[in-house]
């Protein structure tokens, strides 16, 4: 539920407020709020917004929203947070002991700002680790690709060598078969001639005149 009055200053760092919609009527002429930024939320912003919800309020019928800042914290921001906490405790006359709603509210804001700063740093570290892991994985994959390409070239060389050996064996076997066939034909022809000679001799012996 949106508040009907603008929220007071907070120790939590927020982005500039933006107009969401008009609740009752269009804003008065000359009092236009900044346009809603059309920027895709990053994972860090989504996490921040889920832990530290945006502040909303209505002013002159216009609904405003203010998201927690995703700007990285600096060392100076940490120092300023401590100084701002001490100053607000004094300005709002927070009691040092006992139950004090003011002190409780300011401490809660301080813890939220610490969470904001820590979460951003953690997300950056996580992003760096993921990037390094991705680079490492990419390098490993590149090495694996080179290794597989070398193995493929070696296997292609082996296949080529085996194909050449197969062709050589086929040619040698074909030549050997031709030589065997020629030798066999020559031997058959030789035996045919011998057989014809023997047959001729036998016929000559049978046809010779018999002596009385």
Automatic annotation (TrEMBL):
Residues 23-44 are annotated as: Disordered. It comes from the Eukaryota. One of its GO terms (molecular function) is dynein heavy chain binding. Pfam families: Ax_dynein_light (PF10211). InterPro entries: Axonemal_dynein_light_chain. GO terms for cellular component: axoneme; dynein complex. Residues 131-208 form a coiled coil. Keywords: Coiled coil, Dynein, Motor protein. Belongs to the inner dynein arm light chain family. This is Dynein light intermediate chain. It comes from Pelagomonas calceolata.
